[in-house]
Amino acid sequence: MAQLALALLLAAAPAMAGAMAGEVAVRVQGVRNDQGSIVVGVCAEEVFIGGTCAFRASVPAQAGAVTVTVPGVPPGTYAVRVYHDENGNERIDRNFLGVPLEGFGFSNDAPVRMAPPSFKNAAVTVGPGRLETSLTLRYWLSQ
Q1: With the C-alpha atoms ordered 67, 73, 79, 83, is the resulting torsion angle positive or negative?
Q2: Which of 19, 48, 54, 70 is the most exposed place for a label (fewest CB within 10 A)?
Q3: Contact predicate 60/67, CB 8 Å
Q4: How confident is the model at residue 10 (pLDDT cuts 50, 70, 90)?
């Protein structure tokens, strides 16, 4: 009987985790034009810089501000990274020195000084409900 109860609990675990997942709504301000899309990644610490974020969403760009909602994010600590994919090539374009040519930003408007911010400075806590946050895109160079 105890084995049956354990088996049922283990079988239900993925569904329970999904039911606890929250969503992250990011208000992205400072969008310079309506070209392309605004791409949001909600990232675990180990992939925050240089990796692929497990939770992503995008919306068409609109000059000024847009809100992007990323669903299905399990509770935990993450950092949000955003870029304005103006030309639709699904990556942030950079010049030969590695300086971004498209707008970018991080949760908490974490400071960028010659390198991306630390995970700690950009960290947000996601619970089972809806997390609302905002950030402002930075455009260092024009294309």
Answers
A1: negative
A2: 19
A3: no
A4: very low
Q: Structure tokens of 52?
A: 């692929």
- Please name the amino acid found at residue 67: T
Q: pLDDT digits over 30-53, tens only?
A: 999 999 999 999 999 999 998 999
Q: Could you tell me the pTM of the whole model?
A: 0.85
Decide if 143 is inside a domain.
Answer: no
Tokens of 84: 């304005």
Could you tell me the CA-to-CA distances from 59 to 37, 55, 75, 76, 89 in Å, in that order? 6, 14, 23, 24, 14
Whether the pLDDT of residue 82 is over 70: the answer is yes
Nearest CA-CA partner of 127 in 24, 14, 55: 24
Three-state SS at 22 = strand
- The parent domain of residue 71 ranges over 18-136
Any domain includes 10? no
Q: Are strands 130-136 and 22-31 parallel, antiparallel or unpaired?
A: parallel
CATH of the domain at 118: 2.60.40.1120
Tokens of 132: 């609302």
The tally of domains found in the chain comes to 1
